């Protein structure tokens, strides 16, 4: 019959807690029981939460046998082909070597400098000045010319250009200005030799 009163429950609890103290034998039995319970819990719980071993069932080892034949058979991996690796890094691309100045490159530079210096305020319009430079200038850099104010172009004293550097596909020339020098770069593009850059030095 279940115990429904607090007095009855208290009496039952008192008997349970007092049982180990009734005799030394009861005390030893209680200690041994507690030790067994704690030991069982400390062994069972870690094994229960331990993750299963990877790579298949525990205690089994899978092996793959590789053969020297082709890799079309089931379970056979293709034989790896060893490739010799370079022991030294390749040197970077060498700088372009010098070459005799191309006559077409020099002619383009001369014509461009001449057209560049042919602006006369009050007589020449900007459109006429640009038309004179158009055929000698690369399409990629022509918009830069359109942003130049011709009236501010420095005076060219000597329109005869002098070669500074010359390579197979490009060259640099200079023309003497009233103040400083005009450096003109000419390159060989699919459309031919054209001016790709210019700058005032000094």
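^ structure tokens above, recovered residues below v
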């Amino acid at each position: 019959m279940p115990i429904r009163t607090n007095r009855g429950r208290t009496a039952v609890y008192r008997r349970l807690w007092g049982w180990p103290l009734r005799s030394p034998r009861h005390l030893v039995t209680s200690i041994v029981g507690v030790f067994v319970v704690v030991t069982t819990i400390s062994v069972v719980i870690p094994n229960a939460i331990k993750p299963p071993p990877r790579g298949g069932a525990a205690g089994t080892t899978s092996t793959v046998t590789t053969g020297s034949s082709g890799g079309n058979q089931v379970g056979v991996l293709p034989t790896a082909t060893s490739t010799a690796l370079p022991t030294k890094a390749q040197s970077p691309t060498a700088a372009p070597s010098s070459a005799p100045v191309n006559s077409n490159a020099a002619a383009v530079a001369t014509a461009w400098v001449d057209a560049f210096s042919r602006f006369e305020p009050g007589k020449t319009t900007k459109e006429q000045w640009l038309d004179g430079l158009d055929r000698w200038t690369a399409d990629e850099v022509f918009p830069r010319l359109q942003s130049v104010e011709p009236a501010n172009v420095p005076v060219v004293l000597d329109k005869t250009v002098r070669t500074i550097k010359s390579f197979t596909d490009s060259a640099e020339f200079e023309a003497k200005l009233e103040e400083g020098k005009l450096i003109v770069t000419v390159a060989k593009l699919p459309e031919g030799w054209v001016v790709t850059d210019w700058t005032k030095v000094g």
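The beta strands are 156-166, 170-177, 181-189, 192-201.
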